[in-house]
Recover the amino acids of this structure.
């Protein structure tokens, strides 16, 4: 029997899926994605993903 997912679990899975897609797109196009680091937005090399 399948366990029913809570709304929080569904949101977490959707966020993980969206991040995977964005990371894959940035790797493919070679654009540096922006991430939060120490309270600031920082661009990181697609090679480091």
């Amino acid at each position: 029997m399948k366990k029913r997912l809570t709304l929080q679990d569904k949101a977490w899975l959707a966020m993980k899926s969206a991040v995977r897609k964005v990371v894959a797109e940035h790797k493919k196009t070679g654009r540096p994605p922006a991430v939060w680091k120490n309270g600031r937005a920082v661009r990181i090399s697609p090679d480091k993903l």
User: Anything to note?
Assistant: The helical segments are 7-29.
